[in-house]
Write a structure and sequence with these properties.
About 40% of the residues are buried. The chain has seven helices and nine strands; from the N terminus they run E-E-E-H-E-E-H-E-H-H-H-E-H-E-H-E. Strand 4 and strand 5 form a beta hairpin. It has one domain: P-loop containing nucleotide triphosphate hydrolases (Rossmann fold, 3-Layer(aba) Sandwich), CATH 3.40.50. The protein binds adenosine-5'-diphosphate. The site of adenosine-5'-diphosphate has 12 residues, from helix 1.
Length: about 220
C-alpha cells in the first residue's frame, strides 16, 4: 500500500471544466514524483487536492490506504499539520512575523520545544543559503529566498509527504541543485515527495513522472 495515492480523482472549479479527470496514481514512501505540463494544466490544483486543501468532486485521496479527502475540515487540517509539508509557489509566509518565526511555526504547533525548533531551523536555513535572513520580514526578501524559507518550514517537521510547487522556479542552478538534493534526501528517509516543475532535467531525475495534458 502506498503512503499516498489517488483513485479515479476528479476535480473542476465551480462553473469550470474538469481540471483533473479520473487520475489514479501512487506516491510510495521513498519516492520523488515530478508533475509536469504547460501552465494551467492543473499541477497546482493536483497538489492542493493531494494536500487536502480542495475536495475532489469524484474519486479519492488515500493516506496509508485510508480515504481522507472527505474528512471534516478540522480533521483534514490536523492531518495536514502532522503529515504534510508544503512549498507553495508564492511561499505563503506570514508577512507580519520574522522569517525565523515563519520557519518554526508548524513545528511549534506540533509541540516541538522552541529551542530545538530554532536550532534545527538555523541548520536548514544555513544549508539553503538563507540563514542571514532569519530576522527579516518576508517583505524584505526575494522570491527565491522566500521559497527556500518555505522549504525550511516544510522540512523542519520531517513530514511524511512533501508537496512542492516549482520549488526551483526562481533559483540559480547551484541553489536549485541543493534544493533538489534535500528533497531527494527527504524521500530517502521514507517520505513521498511530489514536485510540480517546468524543469525537464529535474523531472528526469525523479522516480516517477506524471505529465498532465494541456487543457
Ligand atoms: P498549473 O499549476 O499547471 O499552472 P493550475 O492548477 O494553477 O495549473 O490551474 C489549472 C486550471 O484551473 C487553469 O485553467 C486555471 O485557470 C484554473 N484555476 C486555478 N485556480 C482556480 C480557481 N481558484 N478558480 C477557478 N479556476 C481556477
Amino acid at each position: 500500500m502506498s503512503l499516498l495515492a489517488t483513485e479515479l480523482l476528479s476535480f473542476g472549479y465551480q462553473n469550470g471544466e474538469m481540471v483533473v479527470r479520473d487520475l489514479s496514481v501512487e506516491f510510495p514512501s521513498g519516492s520523488v514524483t515530478a508533475l509536469t505540463g504547460p501552465s494551467g494544466c492543473g499541477k497546482s490544483t493536483l497538489l492542493y487536492l493531494l494536500g487536502l486543501m480542495l475536495r475532489p468532486v469524484g474519486g479519492a485521496v488515500l493516506l496509508d490506504g485510508t480515504p481522507v479527502h472527505a474528512l471534516p475540515d478540522r480533521e483534514r487540517a490536523r492531518l495536514r499539520a502532522h503529515h504534510f509539508g508544503f512549498v507553495f509557489q508564492d511561499a505563503a509566509l506570514d508577512p507580519t512575523r520574522t522569517v525565523l518565526d515563519n520557519v518554526v511555526e508548524t513545528a511549534l504547533y506540533r509541540g516541538q520545544p522552541r529551542r530545538d525548533a530554532i536550532s534545527a531551523a538555523h541548520r536548514l536555513m544555513e544549508r539553503f543559503g538563507v540563514q542571514l535572513r532569519a530576522t527579516h520580514k518576508p517583505g524584505q526578501i526575494s522570491g527565491g529566498q522566500a521559497q527556500r524559507i518555505a522549504l525550511c518550514r516544510a522540512l523542519l517537521t520531517n513530514p511524511r509527504v512533501v508537496l512542492a510547487d516549482e520549488p526551483t522556479g526562481n533559483l540559480d542552478p547551484a541553489t536549485s541543485a541543493i534544493v533538489v538534493e534535500a528533497l531527494r534526501e527527504h524521500a530517502d528517509g521514507g517520505a513521498a515527495v511530489v514536485i510540480a516543475t517546468h524543469d525537464p532535467a529535474l523531472a528526469a531525475a525523479c522516480d516517477q513522472h506524471i505529465a498532465l495534458d494541456a487543457r
